[in-house]
Amino acid sequence: QVQLVESGGGLVQAGGSLRLSCAASGSIPSINAMGWYRQAPGKKRELVAIISGGSTNYADSVKGRFTISRDNAKNTVYLQMNSLKPEDTAVYYCNIHTVLSAVRSYDYWGQGTQVTVSS
């Protein structure tokens, strides 16, 4: 059974930093990508950052401030968040995307961790 456990969320003042971690337990074959999404109240869940192989992609709103990284040996993905803004306030979700074949894929999700940035 696969479980993704997130940690690192909390309350921080604007301009501060947080580092989110997501550790996957259980067997997860064929990991294609790891990423972070977030959802603010009343808004759709949106992509924040993705890492696949040696490539990373970020939402325009977080470029230059957030950095995604991973430790493949530990099946862990991180999100370093600097220069936080109140608009970054949301529940952040870890995602692991697996590709089992050309026609089979599956997404695993963490439970979510709250990030609140005060002004």
Question: What features would you highlight for this structure?
Answer:
single chain; 119 residues; mainly beta; seven-stranded mixed sheet; four-stranded antiparallel sheet
Structure notes:
The protein has 119 residues and is mostly beta strands. 0% of the residues lie in helices and 59% in strands. It is built from no helices and eleven strands. Strands 2, 4, 5, 6, 9, 10 and 11 form a seven-stranded mixed sheet that branches. A hairpin with a 4-residue loop joins strand 7 (66-71) and strand 8 (76-81). It is elongated, with a radius of gyration of 14 Å. The model has no long low-confidence stretch (mean pLDDT 94).
Topology:
Blueprint: E1 3-7, E2 10-13, E3 18-25, E4 31-39, E5 46-52, E6 55-58, E7 66-71, E8 76-81, E9 90-99, E10 105-109, E11 113-118
Parallel strand pairs: 2-11
Antiparallel strand pairs: 1-3, 3-8, 4-5, 4-9, 5-6, 7-8, 9-10, 9-11
In short:
The protein is an all-beta fold and 119 residues long.
- Mean pLDDT value: 94
Spans with pLDDT under 50 lasting ≥5 residues?
none
Q: What is the number of helices?
A: 0
Helix vs. strand class: mainly beta
**Helical proportion, percent range:** under 10%
Overall, the morphology is elongated
Termini gap: 41 Å
| Series of secondary-structure elements, N-terminal to C-terminal | EEEEEEEEEEE
Q: How would you sum up the major sheet?
A: 7 strands, mixed
Task: Determine the strand fraction and express it as a percent band.
Answer: over 45%
Instruction: Please tell me how large the radius of gyration is.
Output: 14 Å
Would you count the extended β strands for me? 11
